[in-house]
């Protein structure tokens, strides 16, 4: 096992090409870990990625996790500066420039839906986007004052998004700059995380939908680190979506 991080997300990564991983995921996930990643063989790609949240549940996709897994593969001589990765629902390509890694993200087309969310004390407008996992994007003028834990949990478990629930990403769009800031409440961790790659992607695409900001959009995460989201937008449809970050080896 080795630990890698991107934008403040920390993952325990195992080489499971022999398919013999048998350790409890929840035992591996110490408090500082955001998840466990298994690098496995694939008949259709360079590797297969399985990603488990700290509660032991398996997720379909993890943007920061897939970049960390490629960094792990490069460090261990398992691939060069490009590879393909089979996730639960897609085959994604990744490229390394020696420092940063760029991962293609699942296609969404024009599948961004505005939704009104009736809550206990107010109604919020959000945007429902699936960037590999479902996200609700909520725009705010002040991220620092938001009760992320309580508000995020109320939206995550809202019956509008049952039974699977949704991750919740809160966004502040910086005026006059092509950048945004985010805070994300994640399913499976049931709390705020330092960053979220799929959440950064969802936030950037929602921002492009309702503002004049265009690709690439810099996303400042809770950790203070930046993720870059690039995409093509034509007639309200998004294609060629990618996430770029800098994964690092911890131990």
How is this structure best described in words?
This protein is of the alpha+beta class. It folds into 2 domains: 2-104, Diaminopimelate Epimerase, Chain A, domain 1; 112-246, Diaminopimelate Epimerase, Chain A, domain 1, CATH 3.10.310. The chain has 4 helices and 18 strands. The protein has helices at 25-28, 63-75, 148-156, 197-210; strands at 2-6, 9-15, 35-40, 47-53, 58-59, 82-86, 91-96, 101-104, 112-118, 123-130, 134-139, 167-173, 179-186, 191-193, 217-220, 226-234, 237-245, 248-249. It has an 18-stranded mixed β-sheet that branches. A hairpin with a 4-residue loop joins strand 13 and strand 14. The protein is globular and about 50 Å long. The mean pLDDT is 95.
Summarize it.
This protein is α+β, with helices and mostly antiparallel strands.
Spell out the key features of this protein.
251 residues, alpha+beta, 2 domains, single chain, 4 helices, 18-stranded mixed beta sheet, Diaminopimelate Epimerase, Chain A, domain 1, 18 strands
Name the CATH homologous superfamily of the largest domain. Answer: Diaminopimelate Epimerase, Chain A, domain 1
Helix content: 10-25%
> What is the averaged pLDDT score?
95
- Low-pLDDT sequence parts: none
Radius of gyration: 17 Å
CATH level 1 name of the largest domain: Alpha Beta
Find the count of extended strands (DSSP E, 2+ residues).
18
- Overall number of domains: 2
Structural class: alpha+beta
Q: What's the number of helices?
A: 4
Straight-line distance between termini: 9 Å
SSE string, helix = H, strand = E? Answer: EEHEEEHEEEEEEHEEEHEEEE
**Main sheet properties:** 18 strands, mixed
């Amino acid at each position: 096992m080795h630990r890698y991080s991107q934008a403040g997300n920390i993952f325990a990564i195992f080489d499971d090409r022999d398919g013999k991983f048998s350790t409890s995921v929840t035992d591996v996930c110490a408090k500082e870990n955001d998840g466990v990643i298994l690098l496995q063989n694939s008949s259709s790609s360079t590797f297969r990625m399985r990603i488990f949240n700290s509660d032991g549940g398996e997720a379909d996709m993890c943007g920061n996790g897939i970049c960390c897994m490629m960094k792990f593969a490069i460090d261990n001589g398992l691939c060069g500066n490009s590879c393909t990765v089979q996730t639960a629902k897609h085959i994604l390509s990744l490229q390394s420039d020696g420092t940063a890694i760029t991962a293609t993200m699942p296609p969404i087309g024009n599948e961004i839906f505005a939704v009104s969310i009736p809550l206990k004390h107010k109604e919020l407008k959000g945007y429902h986007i699936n960037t590999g996992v479902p996200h609700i994007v909520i725009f705010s003028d002040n991220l620092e004052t938001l009760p992320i834990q309580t508000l995020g949990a109320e939206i995550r478990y809202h019956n509008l998004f049952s039974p699977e629930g949704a991750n919740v990403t809160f966004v502040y769009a910086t005026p006059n700059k092509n950048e945004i800031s985010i805070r994300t409440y994640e399913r499976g961790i049931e709390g705020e995380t330092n960053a979220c790659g799929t959440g950064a992607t969802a936030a950037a695409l929602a921002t492009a939908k309702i503002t004049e900001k265009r690709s690439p959009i810099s996303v400042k995460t809770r950790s203070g680190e930046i993720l870059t989201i690039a995409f093509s937008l034509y007639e309200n449809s998004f294609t060629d979506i990618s996430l770029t970050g800098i994964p690092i080896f911890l131990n």
